[in-house]
């Protein structure tokens, strides 16, 4: 086995020994946890449920209103009554009582069809609530996936930095051995120690970044930020995305565009409600009442009544200071504004999609290029290590080869991560982002 690959294998094995001691968090598990715990999703789902509960015939004004009433009262009075014959009647402490109850119904049977437009508006608001919830879910998934693959990238950078330390350790051991047998110099040993310390510092910084990125992901999952975990290092990219297909899906599935379309529908329904105020308002009412009175000083000392009542009321607007015309004009302007919002939203989203696809295509090519650079740099380091072991090259050449290999690996991981972000952005815009 070649020396360089042996060193890398040892570094990878050492890193995996810590992996086994921690939770391995898959992407599907991360998204499931986020969808369950994320506070923004919980809040937006509550709002969507409120919009759903509001969709009922009563809230739209289609159903009648039925109310029951009950009243009771009384009085105690001293009374002096003088009759036409001149006779006076004096009653001290006369107690009067009354009691009544009933049930009444009020029902608007025609209001210019506004009640039906209101009901359709409530259903549109419910649908818009679902779309807003979907948008928040997509945003949360995007944030989680981005943070997840950032952790995956950083884990590999930590492994690469650890591998660099192993190479520096190997170089320091050889330099020290050469010094011991009189074939090396103290300067080579000191230079090797400096480079070893530099690589160790880089490794510790990369470890710190990894811890920070893990905290960020834990925060998105709404769990203890100190929860320890690792993720698989796979950052495979979907290379089969086509612009035409993504643009078509964006027109159909993008939540922001869907919400704008529903906002136009709501504006049109509001216009119907306003126009309904031009028509007559017809209401019917009915009820049943029971009343009982007792008055010892009255013409009759007791009375009782009960029965049904009914009626019909119709009113027609004639003039309200031109407010009806003003309200209709404003409602029409709102419809026009909603149409403009749809076009503006569509233009902005297609522009974002175009930019994201260009970035995606560019980084796909860069991934292949940087992967080739990694292979070349690894082969160069392997050859350089062997030559250094044989004493045919200077330490500076080994250091340069080591630095080139680490830089190539770092660039490759960063390009791969950026390509993944571009893929995620495309799928979010097209409304097709999922947990696979």
TrEMBL record:
Keywords: Cell outer membrane, Membrane, Signal, Transmembrane, Transmembrane beta strand, Transport. One of its GO terms (cellular component) is efflux pump complex. Pfam families: OEP. One of its GO terms (molecular function) is porin activity. It is found in: Cell outer membrane. Residues 1-21 form the signal peptide. It comes from the Bacteria. Its main location: membrane. Belongs to the outer membrane factor (OMF) (TC 1.B.17) family. This is TolC family protein. It comes from Pedobacter cryotolerans. The lineage of its organism: Bacteria, Pseudomonadati, Bacteroidota, Sphingobacteriia, Sphingobacteriales.
């Amino acid at each position: 086995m070649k020396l360089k690959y042996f060193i890398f294998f040892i570094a990878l094995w050492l890193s995996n020994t810590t992996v086994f001691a921690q939770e391995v968090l898959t992407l599907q598990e991360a998204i499931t946890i986020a969808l369950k715990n994320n506070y923004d999703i919980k809040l937006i789902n509550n709002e969507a449920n409120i919009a759903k509960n509001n969709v009922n015939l009563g809230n739209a004004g289609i159903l009648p209103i039925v109310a029951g009433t009950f009243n009771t009262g009384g009085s105690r009075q001293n009374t002096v009554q003088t009759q036409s014959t001149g006779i006076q009647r004096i009653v001290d402490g006369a107690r009067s009582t009354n009691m009544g109850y009933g049930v009444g119904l009020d029902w608007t049977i025609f209001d210019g069809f506004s009640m039906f437009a209101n009901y359709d508006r409530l259903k549109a608001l419910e649908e818009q609530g679902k779309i807003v919830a979907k948008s928040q879910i997509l945003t949360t998934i995007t944030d989680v996936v981005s943070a997840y693959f950032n952790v995956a990238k950083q884990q590999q950078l930590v492994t690469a930095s650890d591998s660099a330390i192993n190479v520096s350790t190997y170089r320091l051991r050889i330099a020290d051995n050469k010094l011991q047998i009189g074939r090396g110099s103290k300067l080579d040993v000191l230079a090797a120690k400096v480079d070893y310390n530099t690589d160790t510092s880089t490794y510790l910084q990369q470890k710190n970044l990894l811890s920070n990125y893990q905290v960020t992901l834990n925060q998105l999952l709404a769990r203890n930020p100190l929860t320890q975990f690792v993720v698989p290092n796979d950052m495979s990219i979907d290379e089969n995305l086509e612009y035409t297909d993504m643009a078509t899906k964006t027109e159909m599935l993008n939540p922001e565009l869907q919400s704008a379309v529903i906002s136009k529908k709501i504006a049109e329904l509001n216009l119907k409600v306003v126009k309904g105020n031009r028509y007559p308002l017809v209401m019917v009412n009915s009820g049943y009442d029971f009343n009982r009175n007792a008055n010892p000083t009255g013409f009759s000392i007791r009375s009782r009544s009960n029965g049904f009542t009914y009626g019909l009321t119709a009113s027609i607007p004639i003039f309200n200071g031109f407010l009806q015309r003003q309200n209709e004009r404003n409602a029409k302007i709102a419809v026009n504004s909603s149409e403009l919002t749809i076009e503006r939203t569509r233009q902005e989203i297609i522009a974002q999609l175009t930019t994201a696809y260009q970035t995606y295509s560019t980084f796909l090519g860069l991934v292949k290029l940087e992967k080739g650079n990694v292979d070349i740099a690894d082969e160069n380091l392997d050859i350089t290590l062997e030559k250094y072991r044989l004493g045919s090259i200077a330490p500076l050449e080994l250091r340069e080869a080591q630095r080139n290999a680490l830089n190539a690996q770092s660039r490759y991981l960063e390009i791969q991560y950026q390509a993944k972000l571009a893929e995620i952005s495309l799928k979010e815009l097209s409304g097709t982002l999922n947990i696979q």
